[in-house]
Amino acid sequence: MSYNPAPTLLVLTLTPLLAYAGADFSSSVVFATSGKTSYTTPTLIQAGNGDVLAFALRKDEETPRIVVRRSSDGGGTWTEDNELPGKDAKLDSACPLVTSTGKILLLGTTPPPPMAEGRPASLKWLLGNSESARSGGAKIILFESTDNGKNWAETADLTERFWTYPRSGLTRWHGRGLELTEGKQKGRLFFPGYHFSIKSTEPDKDTKSHVIYSDNEGQNWSFGGSTRGFSYEGNIVELGGGKIAFHSQTNWPGYVGFRAFDTSLDAGKTFEVSQKIDAFPELRPTLAGVTRLAAQGAPLLLLANPSSKTDKRFDLTVHASPDDGRSWTIHRVIEKGFAAGSDLLALKDGTVLCLYETDEYRSLKLAKFNRDWIMQ
Questions:
Q1: What are 245's strand-pairing partners?
Q2: Mean pLDDT in each 10-residue stretch from start to end of the chain (376 residues)?
Q3: Using H for helix, E for strand and C for coil, what is the string for 159-194?
Q4: Rounded to whole angstroms, how far apart are CA atoms 134 and 138?
Q5: Alpha-carbon gap, residue 215 to 219, rounded angstroms
Q6: Which of 56, 88, 130, 326 is 20 to 30 A from residue 301's alpha carbon, by CA?
Q7: CA dist., res. 18 & res. 124, Å (int)
Q8: CB of 324 within 8 A of CB of 303?
Q9: Nearest to 85 by CA among 134, 170, 149, 161
Q10: Are 328 and 321 in contact (CB under 8 A)?
């Protein structure tokens, strides 16, 4: 099965906000609310040809579904929404991964049938009706694209293998996958997710982050390790020397109000090093973008989250670590006021993009900046 949308170009003007020598910052709305349509859950990738793809969950009067827009000029202009394909239904989550060969893999889920009153099934409902959802058509499907995300083909149905985590409960998938570029397992592919305990009844309780991995370019997949403490909706990032880390929301006792940083020293087989990030607050947990900026200088680990000292999701801030997360010494505000979940992506030329929820979870805005702006 293939999918071939006909893109329409939207011109969005990026308005510079700062004009310091060497520093560059601009922002614009990419996914704008219109009528009853709103957008959440941002994810960014850069395809092998340099195009940037922005994924979002579109909500309107129909079943929520994943859409994607494309930019061929580093985030300056974008196509209109294109829906990602499912076999029999649209996708309600998508986790993309760009490989070193240029192929893009995408782990997507299709939703179960709507509830009796016509509303989409909630996560709380899924926890109590996991098997009913699966028998009703909810699936985990692997897609691939060999032309930079213009066409997609379904390659495997992974529902049976990954619907639940071993000796635990329901799995969920989100964020951006990665391929290891260093270490003994160079070339290993990862998708991030999280899972519930067998007895979980609440969406934000008794959860742990985990990965699945492949050592043969995505042909076969296995469960990797999971985090030690309670965490969910984490993003993974490669650190130096082939290590990977989860940056996650957490409700682990002693970590509440901060983020969890769980490191794997064995290429994702286990996550045994857990650390509380106490250099900045997160009093209202949210999905936080993370990326590693290696171009044009020493590597910087970047993370963006709402860092208000209240329980509101205000003041989206990018935090920078020069030592792979051991310390966080630089903090730059991207957006004052309301801003929630985000994704960060360092482009090949050193430009950093941050796509984030704003307008009370109705629109997605893009901030575009460089190393000089972070460091000034």
A1: 237, 263
A2: 43 41 90 92 97 95 89 96 71 95 96 75 86 90 96 95 93 95 96 89 81 97 90 90 89 75 94 80 81 93 87 90 93 94 96 96 96 95
A3: HHHHCECCCCCEEEECCCCEECCCCCCCCCEEEEEE
A4: 5
A5: 8
A6: 56
A7: 44
A8: no
A9: 149
A10: yes
Residues paired with 178 in a beta bridge:
190
Q: Are 196 and 170 contacting, i.e. CB atoms less than 8 angstroms apart? A: yes
Residue 34 per-residue DSSP state: B
Angle formed at CA 285 by CA 233 and CA 25, multiple of 5 degrees: 90
| Run of H or E including 130 | helix 130-135
CB atoms under 10 Å from CB of 36, counted, come to 10
Cα→Cα distances 301→244, 264, 289, 291, 330, Å: 12, 16, 11, 6, 11
Tell me the pairing of strands 171-173 and 178-179: unpaired
Strand order across the 314-321 sheet:
289-293, 300-306, 314-321, 330-338
Tell me which residue of 84, 1, 5, 54 sits closest to 345, measured CA to CA.
Answer: 54
The whole-angstrom separation of Cα 194 and Cα 95 is 12
Q: What is the pLDDT of residue 204?
A: 67
* Neighbouring C-beta atoms of residue 73, cutoff 10 Å: 11
Contact at 8 Å (CB) between 363 and 56?
no
Half-sphere exposure of 71 (CA within 13 A, CB side): 22
User: Is 286 in contact with 341 (CB distance < 8 Å)?
Assistant: yes
**Six-digit token string for 32:** 């704008």
With 0.85 as the threshold, say if the pTM is over it: yes
Give residue 219's Cα distance to chain centre: 22
Location of structure tokens 């590693």: 292
Task: For the chain, report the end-to-end CA distance as a whole number of angstroms.
Answer: 49
Q: How far is CA 139 from CA 55, 197, 218, 368, in A?
A: 19, 20, 18, 35
